[in-house]
Amino acid sequence: MEITIQRDGLTLFGLLEGSKTIENDKIVILMHGFKGNLGYQKGKLLNDLAQSLNAAGFPTIRFDFSGCGKSDGKFQDKTVWSEILDGMKIIDYVRHTVKAKEIYLLGHSQGGVVASMLAGYFSDVIDKLILLSPAATLKDDALKGECQGVFYDPHHIPDSVIVDGFTVSGDYFRSAQTLPIYEVAKVYQGPVLLVHGDADRVVDPIASERYYAVYKNADYHLIKEADHILSGDNNQRQLMLDDVCRFLQEERTQAKT
Question: Between 80-96 and 110-121, two packed helices, what is the crossing angle to 10 degrees?
């Protein structure tokens, strides 16, 4: 079913799937990556994830960050911080409207960075965390003045940079340079699953290795010949989907404070 959530005058669009009712005891929140959306076509990563999770008995909410897909806002106004604010409202919606007793966060690429920081901010609320190809190297890239093959002066950041046809604001890069990604992420003490492909040419697997080093309760799966969207010629996407469902089905929980 379609849902909408308000955040500072913006309407965020999402889909609640795997349930015929709004209220659910458990929910998985799916967060897309940079330049992405909630996955409207079959075969898109978040679409495949939602279908697999629903089949395994987990209702899901996938949504468009502001400035993406069907949500309000302009892409050039997006920053990682704006996505964190979006995510906070989604979590509030899940807590107070869905009334979920178990909340799981799953983020891909930049959505993984957002999910990791939200889990740190909501460490008393989030039950499990899944990071797929988490793009924490976006901070490294911002410090050296690069974004997906486009270069700029990191010491004199322009007002905007065109990346693959998308206008990215200078504010995005300025804030990315000082993001406390791992410092906030490590506050979360619950179970974490990290999945990365060793053939990822967008985000170096070192990002997941760094996460694995700061988490105390994490599994790290490096999938051979899988790319950034965890696909490949040898059923890599299905291996990832199986990993995610298995992790959520495990009886491994955290003690909430």
Answer: 60
Asked if 105 contacts 129 with a C-beta cutoff of 8 angstroms, the reply is yes
Residue 85: CB atoms within 10 A of its CB come to: 16
The domain locations on the chain are 2-137+182-249
Distance (Å, rounded) from C-alpha 203 to C-alpha 188?
23
What's this model's pTM, rounded to 2 decimal places?
0.95
User: In b/e form, how buried is each residue of 235-245, taking b as 16+ CB within 10 angstroms?
Assistant: ebbebbbebbb
pLDDT, one tens digit per residue, over 3-54 is: 999 999 999 999 999 999 999 999 999 999 999 999 999 999 999 999 999 9
CATH-assigned architecture of domain 2-137+182-249 = 3-Layer(aba) Sandwich (3.40)
